[in-house]
Each structure stands twice: as structure tokens, then as C-alpha cells.
Prior knowledge:
By secondary structure, chain A is mainly alpha-helical. Helix content of chain A is 64%, strand content 0%.
Amino acid sequence: MTVCMHDRLVVARASRPWPLVGRIGRIVGALLAVPARLRRAMIGKRARQAVPLHTMTQRPGAGGHYSHPTMFAWRLASIIAIVVFSSAPVHAETDSARVDRLFMWASSGQVRFRDRVDPAKDSLGQMGEKAARWLVHKLDATDARERLTLADLFAKIGPAATPYLTMYLDSGGIYMPLNAARCLGQVKDTSSLAALVPKLDHSYYAVRSEVATTLGKIAVRSVVPALLARLRREQDGDVRKSCAVALGLMGDSSATTPLIGLLGDPVFGVRQTAQISLTQLKPPPLSALMTAAERLTGVARHGTLVALGGCDDSHGRRYLLGLLHSGDPLLRGFAIEGLAAHPTEDVRKRVRRLAKTESDPFVLAEMKRFEQQPIGK
Amino acid sequence: MRWIGSVVASRAILLALLAILPSNGMAQENQPDTTSSVLAGALFWPSAAIKTALSYIRLTPADLALRTDYVPRDSSRLPCVDRIMQNPQAAPAVLLSSASAFFAGAHQRPSSVAAHPIGIDWASLEQMATGTQESIHDGLLPDSIPVGAFLRWHIPLHTTRAVLRRGQQHELKLPTGDWTRFLNLALAALTDTGWVDTVLGSLSVDDRQFVLARAPGFLEEDEADRDKPEETLDSLQKIEDLDAERFAALSGPIRWTWVHEHGVSVVAKIAESLPLRAPQWDNKSGMGGEVMTFDTPAGPLVFGTTGSDHFTGNPAMIVDPGGDDLYELEPLAIDRHRLILDYAGNDQYLAPAGNDLGAARFGWSILADFAGNDSYTAGSFSLGSGWFGVGLLCDMGGRDRYSGDTHTQGAGSFGVGVLFDADVASADEYSARLYGQGFGSSAGLGILADAGGNDIYTAGGKYEDVLRYRDHYLSLSQGFAYGIRPHISGGIGLLLDQSGNDVYIADIFGQGCSYWWSFGGLYDGGGNDQYIAYQYAQGSATHMTAGCLYDVAGDDRYESKGVSQGCGHDWSVALLIDSAGNDRYIATDLSQAAGSANGVGILIDGSGDDGYYTTSMVNTQGYGNPRREYGSVGLFLDLAGVDHYDGPGHDRIVWLSQSRWGVGVDADSVWLSKNRNDSVYAR
């Protein structure tokens, strides 16, 4: 079904038995919608077919759509009506018009208008579900600032937005499901999990990646198997990165082996996030990491050392201290980087002692950075 | 005869810059000594040092590669851009190759297309270089046919001594076979219309009108924006977005590749055939005494005099042998071509309405001025500008001044625009407002090349940067490339200056910089240069794109506030490479090897006693911040000299950024001896 650049009018007319003032407000709403329509008409662009059928049922009173001639007649009548009622005060602004106006302010990037941004975001947040139902129509945004603004706004609105957002996960194209997944990550509502998990198999990598990140932010361990399954068959580095992040945020130790495997990933973002995630698992995978540190080579081994240090455990620290006498300056250096994650006074003394005889510039640089870390952080 | 060599070089410019390797080289007699030494040398890329420095942050050189599909690919993506995204080393390589195409001798050129590092489609370019020129109508007018049989001259507008009367046209005697052949070629090419039909042929009438009327608006700014209310600006932005969306949908069926293949071939063919001397008219015919205008199927053909002529109107072709002339022509219409040859004199070219002086829309245009101190003043889309066309402005000698507004001085969008000042000694002045001085937008290649002299480049000062500042202006120039985010990938913009003590002044966006799936590069071959900008400059790239400033030699000074001097932001890669000289680098923040939002920022200084000055201790000199749950990369390398630092760096040590994904190395002799096992140091 074709909807709905005009759906705001549909809703306004069909659902609210307003008195005169409300009608005038409705007319104002119609007029506010005119410029967008005229703009499209001016450049010959047809109304977008952006909203899937099922979303119509979520809108109060939405029961159909207008053909273009009907819309034109409606607007023409609106214009005539506003002229007739021009002497009457206009008190109302429809929710959709208000959301449009506030969103424009909230997503403004220009330095002249920056003082409007935060108040507009707050106002939209306070509108709650009323704002959510209209904001979801903007999920096809491709502009980076608008996309970030949407994420901020849905974070403010919270779980009231979940039903609206989850519907858009099934939308066609790329940006709608991508933006919906990102916004759900800000909402962090467990009721969205059922809609999110299947999207781990979305055909576009960025959607899979965003969904994985969102699942991590919601952090319910029951989805760990789904993430691990995705990880096993995933070819795209960005998705593997997001899976690694999510697994770390969930902290489930069943992810230890897969995450250690990612320490040698060809994509450095995967290696970095896997290393950090390993430090977030409960309980810390110390023995697995120490075994890996002996088995792995190159950047994978170096990442293992840093991860080991991040686990904040005396056994791990002892292992790393032992490497400070290695003949390989990279091992010495990354052992110090690992120790710097949770420095102790004893370790600091050891490092200072070794600094007196150390000559490798990289190890010295790591020692200097170690010195800048506060004890007991 | 300095200019003769320059002309020879100019013949091959366009082909060469599209990685078509020209057979004609620039005459060596005019090249400064530094030219051959620099261009014959290896690319400055210290691989071993880079590899070692990256190992300090657990990275490998392969980790510098960015992917090419952060967003779905559009049909305007250039392979060269993808190649640089995947391998940052290709950025200075492209600049060096491009500079070689303009400034190097034939013997210094690579021996095969395959070896050429510019990442455009080699096979098709080679094909372009070797054939498919039938549309020039080559051979349509063989030498055996008198020129007069083709020219349909009947109204010599300005002459009181019309020597070419009806019935006598066959007696027109051009002085040499070169000129006869050239006129045949040029006039045939000038009648080669129908570009709109060819390029936009698959579009509906409505869409075709949209492209012709509204698409240039993507590259036009309005000074009044700074005073418009937000609601108005928002509406305008939405209209632009919808236009861009529509244009992106059309860019697939649009045959912009035909503009590159066919247009470049035509212009190159004409440039290769340019007679090196003005025609010597037969005294008996009286030519040369008066300006003569003849109607031809291609449009008016005008022959000037050795005196000071004033050219107006809408000619297709002007040939002027000398004198201090004034050109005030009407803008070149869409689907028309123009050829202007001025062989001597201090000339003044005026085109306030733009679309002229080596500028074409759905066509080609060449302006070749062979000598004299000339002044070029034009509006937008001018001075070597190709908008769905190929525009070439070539000035072979003299101290020249160029002034333009938007899309000017070597600017290409869905086409090619080149400004080449071939004089190796004169000091030239270039002034542009926006999108100029080596600018490439979508599917476009724009190049400004200056062979030498102490030049001054300024860009900006007219269009306020309403998004970020109330006291700074957009430049988007000086080796800058631009895409229409998020709909259409950008092009390639290059500013190439071979020698001289040059001054580059920009404000917001410029000097080896790009935005959205593009490559912007600035190459300076030598001299003590100054680079001044405010933001997004001097090797900077924002939003999935690539930028590079490559200065080969000289004691240079770089000054910018931020997001500059080797700063890649948002999955972008940016490089500032200065291979020699005692240099000064001055910045405030997020500069000097700064990676931001998963970008890669690289600063490499090869030698010399340098000074690095930054205000921020946090995000400069080897810095990479986290975004999207992982890191950006900042790689700072100073490989020799006694250096001074205000900022995180220090002389002769390694330092690691607190951000964890940034590293700096100021090499001492021990470190360098371990990491100089690649050939770059041997040059």
C-alpha cells in the first residue's frame, strides 16, 4: 500500500473529533505539510513509498491513503478554509508538526542554531511515545547528523519507542533497519530481542553489525549462542568486531575460545575488540590466555598479553612480569602494557628498576606510559 | 624557445593524467635541475620504518587498509579512490605519477601502463590511448580538400578589406600543411555536437532537463545563506537532498565515462596537433591586417591580428597571432565547443558570467596562450573546467594572474578540467573562491599544474562556513575532491607545483584534502613553501575518503588549526609527507598524525631539523581515538634531524599515545639503522 508522506493528515482527520479550534489546528498542520509536497512536486519526485503496510495498523485511525488528486483537493480545501477562518486564533499544533519542527532544531548542525539543539531534544524526549510514533518515519534518514540525533532521541524516549522501532527492522533498504537497530541499542529494551536476533542474518553486513552491537548493549546472555553461531560463519570483519564487542559486554565465559581465536583476526578492529572483551568475561579466562600466550605468535600473542593484564589477576601479573626479561622487546613492551592496566606498587618498582637498563625505545615508551597510570585504578 | 617545449608537453597532458602515458615529453632544456632528480627518484615511502612503528601498536601495514563498502557503492565511484583507500601508499604514488605526467621528460615515464600506480581502469585507458577516435571524424577532411571547401565563410564582420570574396574561398592559402591539417581537425571536432544526446540519451526528457538545469546546483553556494532562517535552510537542504537522491538514481544510466573517453581523446588529439607558430598569412590576401570572422558549420571562426584586438561574441574558434588582446566572449553554451589560440602578447581574458576560458559543459574547450603576462578573470565554471565536458586552459609563458569564483582553475565534475601553467620560472597568482585550483567532484578529475616560479594560491573568502563558523569561509580547493554525501562518490582533485617558493592560502577544506569517497592531493616538488589554512587541510580526509599533501623538498611551513596535517576522520586516510628540508608544523588540535573515528592519519618527515608545535597534548602527534568500539590510527614518523617539539613528541624517542592507537617515532641513528632496509633511503 502506498502511504504516506501524507499520513500525518490521515491520522489528524480520521482519529480526532476536534472542535473548531482543533480543526483550525488540523488545517495548520495540513498547510505545514504542503511545502514538502510542493517540493516534491516541483522536482517531479513521487511520494516515497517508505512505510510498510503493517506500520499503518499501528497508527491510530490509519485506514487508507489518499490518491494524489484527492490530496490536492484536500489541501486546496485547507487553504480555502484557513482563509475563511483567518480571523480565528490558531491554538493547536499537531504532534507530527511539532515533532517535525523540534527534530529540525534537534538535528541542526549550524553554529547559529546550536542553542536550540538540546532544548529541542529534551522536548521530544518529554513527548515520549507521542514523539516516537512520528520519529520512526524519519528512520530512512541518510544524513549522519539526523541519524545520530534519532539515536539520542530514542534513548531519551526509552522503552515506549520499542514497538515502533522493532517494526522497522523488517523494512526494506538499508538505512531503515540500520537506524532502527541503532536506536534500539540506545533504548536497551529486552522486549526487542525477539525482533533483533533474526536480523543477525540480515543480508547487509552493516545491519548485522549494528544488530550485534545492539544485542551487546542489551546484554542478555540468552542470545550468546546466537552471537556465537553468527561469529562462526561470519565472513565480514565488521560484523565479527561487533560480535566480539557484544560477547564482551555479556561477559559469558563460553565466548573465551572464540574470542581468543579472534586475537589473530586479519582485521585489527576485531583483534582490538576481542582483546578488550576477553577482559570482561566472568570469570576471567586466565589459564586459557596464558596457554594462548605460549601458543600464539605475532600480533595475536601480543594482544593476548595485553588481555591477560586487563584481567587484573595475580597469576596473570606474575606471568607478565616473567616476560619483562624476554629477549624480544615487543614481548617486554606489551607485557608492560598489560601490567599497566591494573598497576600495583610492586610492579611499578620492578618496572622502574628495569628501566635503568632498558635501551629499546619501544619498551622505554611503554615504561613511560606505565608511569602515567595511577596505582590502584 | 621555452614555450615550444611546453606546448609539446601540453599535447599529452590530459591523456597522461588519466594514466594514459603520453609519448611526448616536456623539453628537457627548460627543466630545472631538481626536476629530474626528484622525478627520477623513488617514491618516498619508508616501508620498514612504517612497519616497525605500527608493530608498537600491534598493527601491520595491512591494517592501514580501509574497506570500500562502508556504504553501498554507487556508479560514480572511481577505482583510483578505492585503490588509495585500500593502500595509503598509493596516494603519494598517484601524486608523483601525475606530476611526472606534466613535468617529467619522456625517458622518465614508466614503460608500461600496467606499472602505473594510478588506479583507474588501465585496460580501457590504454584502449583510449591507442584508438577509438573515430568520433573525431579523423580523416573526414583530408589534406587534399581545400580548407575553403569546408569553411562556409560569407560575412567577414570586421573587415573593410574582405579579401575572401565569394568565388575566391578556394584561394585561401594557409601557410603550411600543419595549419591546414590542424584546421581540418579542429573544425571537424568543433562540429562534433550531440554530447547531451549521447551522455543523457537514456534519460527521459524530464530527467534530462533536471540534469541540465539543476545538477550544477550541487556545486553552487549562496552568500546569502548566512542570513537565512533555519526553516528556510532546512527546506533548501531537503530540496538539495532530494535532488541529490534523484541525481544519484540517474547517474547509472548517464554515460559519464563517455565524456572521459571521448572528450579526453578529442582534446588530446587537438592539443597534440597544435601548430607551434601562428599562421603566416599571405600578404596578397591581406589576412592579418584586420580581424576576420567567418561563419563555419561549427560557428564563427575568428582570425585576429598582431595588434591589440578586442574579441567579443560567441566564436567557436579564435586564432590570434599576437598583440595585447582583450577577450570578452559570451559564455560557451551547453553542447558547444570552443578553441582559442593566442600566440603572443599580454592579454586580458574576462568572463564574469563564467562558463568560458577553457570551460565546457557537455562539450570541450581549449584555451592556449603561448606567451605574455596574461590576466584571466572569470566567474564560476571557468579557467579549465569540465562539467560533463573537458576543459583545458594552457598558458605557456609569462607571469599570469588567474581569478575565478566556483568550479574554476582545474575543476572537473563528470568530466575533466585542467589548468596548466607551463612556464618554469614566472611567478603566477591564482585566486579562487570555492571548488577550485585542482578540484574534482563526482566522476571528475580536476588538475591545476604549475611548472615553476614563486606562486601564490588563495582560495576562499566569499562563502561563509555557516555550519561551523561565523568567521571562516569555505575553500574546498587546492587539491580537493568532493562527493555528494551520502548519495554520490566524489572525484579526484590535484594541485601540482613543480618548483618555486610558493604560498598556499586556504580556509576550510583544502591543500590535499577530500570529502566522501574522493581523493584530493597536493604535490609540491621543491622550494621553501608556506601552507596556511584553518581546518580540514594539509593532508586531511573526512568521511570515507582520502587526502594527501606531498612536499618533496625545501624548508616549508605548515599552519592550520585542526583536523589537519595528516588527519583522517571517519574511515578516511590522510597523509602529510615531507621528504626533506627544515620544516615547521603548527597546529592546535587533532592534527599531525591524528586518526579520528576509525580514520588513519599519517605524518612522515624524511629529514631536516624540524619543529612541531601543537596546543593540544592529547590528540596530536600520533593519536588515534576510539569509535565504534575500536580504534583509529595515528602514525607519526620523523626519520632524521634535530627536531623540536611542543606537544606529545620528543626528539629521538618513541612515544605512545594514551589513546593506545597512536604512535610516534622520532628516529635516532640506531633505530633508523635497524629500519632502513628498504630502497627508499637509497635514492
